[in-house]
Amino acid sequence: MAVALVAVGTVSAASAPSSSGVTTSQVNWPEFLHGPYHDGYDPSETALSPSTVAKLRLDFRIATGSGVDSSPVVANGVLYFGTRSGYLYAANATTGTVLWSRQLGGEVDSTPAVAKGVVYVGSADNKVVAYTVKGSRLWSFTTGGDVNSSPIVVNNVVYVGSFDDNMYALNATTGTKLWSFTTGNWISDSPAVANGIVYFESLDGGMYAVNATTGSLVWSSPGPYVWFNSPIVAGNSVFINGVYSFNPTSGALQWHQSGGDDAYGSPAYGNGNLFVGDQGGGASPEVQAFRGSTGKLLWSFAIGGTVSSSPAVANGVVYIGAQNGVIYALDESSGHQLWSYKTGSDILYSSPAVANGMVYIGSDNGSLDAFSLPAAPSS
């Protein structure tokens, strides 16, 4: 049942209807950090900008009763996300009305991926599962460990990592394994896929690039690069930890900027620049911006809490959550704070999604929050 609270709708998942109408959106954010490149960048956003973002207000809150570490995605007017209690939710992206929820066999930290009418997600019961956008289960694939990795779907293939040390390629229609690649340690991050290559990290500290069709190794780079973040492909580079730039074809290290080594979240990339939340290494946590081609530090913003969320970039604004429970909007050019909102609980690993003039993020208070601009007054 929807409860009005100072013009904010709080939707209880337990009492929400099983189905509802869906408003079709023009723009999607269908996978973790937007798409297979993981650049965290929405090039189509127009409503939210440095001049309007200060007007953002909480539009609705979906109460789940369990922490939300999964990042929200938006596809064709529907919002999808998972919870620590093991549920996958689908909700109207405009109103927050829950359309359906499904109990999986374990915690869902994985961010769903939506492609061609199918929702793919991993869970802590060692499985990757596929549902139709109406909530009907299509298939499941069992790995040998937790699946915190967020699936990526390219050319009808699902790429996803597991705590059993493997990166998997699965047929998106049937769930049949096409190949697997073993690293020797957990894979908790989400792969990035570009130009026929799958890029990912492992907790052995290595960066890997494998052929997307065969699973054969293209190159690897051993070293202490990894935390729990995912690589991104942008600007003729593969970036990890926000501060390492590799040649995507050869694996040659192009630059390293030590200023952001302590990063848990993945970087985002927009207009030639790289944005990353840094833990601070015991000092003040920061959001930092680097020139993508050289690694030059452009600006830093001292944030009020440890950062493990990944940023999102859209139309001149950088959005990021922090463990002080605050989501921030920063000016992309200067790092100046434009807006913030205190959710009331830690924002751990859930990262913002920006689509159609709205911003979505999950937090430890057992809810998914959605923000929008006030409606224009009627004439």
Q: Gist?
A:
The chain is mainly beta and 379 residues long. The protein has strands at residues 2-5, 8-12, 41-42, 57-63, 73-75, 78-82, 87-92, 98-103, 113-115, 118-122, 127-132, 137-142, 152-154, 157-161, 166-171, 177-182, 192-194, 197-201, 207-211, 217-221, 232-234, 237-240, 244-246, 253-256, 268-270, 273-278, 286-291, 297-302, 312-314, 317-321, 326-331, 337-342, 353-355, 358-363, 367-372. A 6-stranded mixed sheet has the order 1-2-4-35-34-33, with no helix packed on it. It has a 5-stranded mixed sheet with strand order 3-29-30-31-32, with no helix packed on it.
Would you mind describing this structure in some detail?
The chain has 379 residues and is mainly beta. The protein has a single domain (2-372), classed as 7 Propeller (Methylamine Dehydrogenase, Chain H), CATH 2.130.10. Helix content is 0%, strand content 44%. The protein contains no helices and 35 strands. It has a 6-stranded mixed β-sheet, with no helix packed on it. β18 (197-201) and β19 (207-211) form a beta hairpin. The protein is globular, with a radius of gyration of 19 Å. It starts with a strand and ends in a 7-residue tail after the last strand.
